[in-house]
């Protein structure tokens, strides 16, 4: 069930502009469907997906000679699947944000020895799901004329960006590296992030991220009517707290407590401090669902729990150059 707030707050109001924002769904089929279903429920004037569209994992499913299939739900511990239950297992995998490949063990072993071929299979499956999502948008939201800002994140590829720009429906706005108009506001888009330990496809060193932001900064018309849709959160806020990792990427724990530290972008923070936009909408750090301020400017991160099938979202009501209210919602 989607969380439903009071219709008094949901209904349209003169002069108010409602934005519904989510981020980091990472391939989760159920979360993306919930995102689309949220349009009629929350009645936003604009829906924004803040990046990280692609999933992270490819799960093999092996046919068995005796009939049916086997797969490994958590990477170990084989589980048998009857033919009649295969579609349900594939949907379970998709809902958790993963992709599946029905293949022979020998072929899977060969792919594991060839990173280039494995990457090509992963990209094909990821694009198939994204095209499926674009079709869902056409069926469910395009007829309702609800505009959607769709941006990429640091885990996405340039091929992902090319696909949504080339095949997105007519109600799509793609603000990567540009400022686009949405109603009375401007949306400043950037799907890059400062460097992470995993060196994701769209990670940049701060100096290069600064250059990307500077290139787009010049397109801003009225800063007080500009909403930032920047995947990386600003450094030193409640939005960018993540676990400290050891050299083998394991969370550091001391006396039973996980050590946390700031991992956001100094370049994004500098942009907010110098431009003074209306608000900042960010994602990237799944654990840091929060609202904070940078130089008096409200910044938000709805967080993400995509792997559980739970959709974490944010409603923000704007009026003129003011943020009237915000509400974190769950689905």
Summarize the structure.
With 331 residues, the chain is of the alpha/beta class. Helices cover 28% and strands 27% of the residues.
Overview of this protein structure:
With 331 residues, the chain is α/β, with parallel strands linked by helices. The protein has 2 domains: 14-55 and 123-330, Purple Acid Phosphatase, chain A, domain 2 (4-Layer Sandwich), CATH 3.60.21.10; 58-118, no CATH class. Helices cover 28% and strands 27% of the residues. A 6-stranded mixed sheet has the order 8-7-2-1-21-22, with helices on one face. Strands 9-10-13-18-20-19 form a 6-stranded mixed sheet, with helices on one face. Strands 5-4-3-6 form a 4-stranded mixed sheet. Helix 2 (29-42) packs parallel to helix 5 and helix 5 packs parallel to helix 6 (158-167). It is globular and about 65 Å long. The relative contact order is 0.16.
| Principal-axes shape call | globular
Oligomeric description of these chains: single chain
Mean pLDDT over all positions: 94
User: Which series of helices and strands comes N to C?
Assistant: HEHEEEEHEHHEHEEEEEHEEEEEHEEEEE
What is the CATH architecture term of the largest domain?
A: 4-Layer Sandwich
Question: CATH fold name of the largest domain, please?
Answer: Purple Acid Phosphatase, chain A, domain 2
Sheet of most strands: 6 strands, mixed
Task: Give the CATH H-level superfamily of the largest domain.
Answer: Metallo-dependent phosphatases
């Amino acid at each position: 069930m989607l969380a439903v707030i009071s219709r008094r707050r949901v209904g349209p109001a003169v002069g108010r502009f409602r934005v519904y924002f989510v981020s980091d769904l990472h391939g989760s089929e159920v979360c993306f469907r919930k995102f689309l279903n949220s349009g009629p429920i929350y009645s936003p004037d604009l829906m924004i997906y803040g990046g990280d569209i692609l999933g992270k994992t490819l799960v093999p499913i092996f046919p068995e000679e005796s009939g049916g299939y086997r797969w490994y739900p958590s990477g170990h511990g084989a589980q048998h699947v009857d033919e009649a239950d295969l579609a349900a297992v594939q949907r379970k995998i998709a809902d958790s944000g993963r992709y599946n490949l029905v293949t022979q063990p020998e072929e899977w072993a060969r792919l594991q020895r060839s990173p280039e071929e494995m990457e090509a299979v992963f990209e094909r499956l990821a694009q198939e799901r994204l095209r499926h999502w674009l079709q869902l948008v056409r069926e469910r939201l395009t007829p309702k004329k609800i505009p959607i800002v769709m941006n990429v994140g640091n885990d996405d590829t340039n091929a992902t960006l090319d696909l949504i720009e080339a095949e997105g429906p007519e109600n799509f706005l793609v603000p990567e590296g540009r400022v686009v108009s949405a109603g009375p506001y401007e949306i400043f888009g950037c799907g890059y992030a400062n460097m992470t330990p995993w060196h994701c496809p769209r990670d940049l060193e701060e100096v290069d991220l600064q250059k990307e932001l500077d290139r787009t900064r010049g397109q801003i018309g009225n800063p007080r009517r500009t909403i930032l849709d920047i995947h990386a959160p600003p450094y030193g806020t409640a939005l960018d707290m993540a676990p400290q990792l050891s050299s083998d990427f394991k969370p550091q724990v001391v006396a039973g407590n996980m050590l946390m530290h700031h991992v956001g972008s100094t370049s994004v923070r500098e942009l907010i401090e110098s431009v003074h936009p209306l608000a900042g909408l960010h994602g990237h750090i799944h654990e840091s669902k929060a609202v904070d301020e940078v130089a008096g400017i409200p910044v938000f991160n709805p967080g993400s729990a995509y792997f559980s099938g739970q959709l974490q979202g944010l409603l923000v009501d704007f009026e003129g150059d003011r943020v009237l209210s915000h509400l974190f919602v769950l689905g």
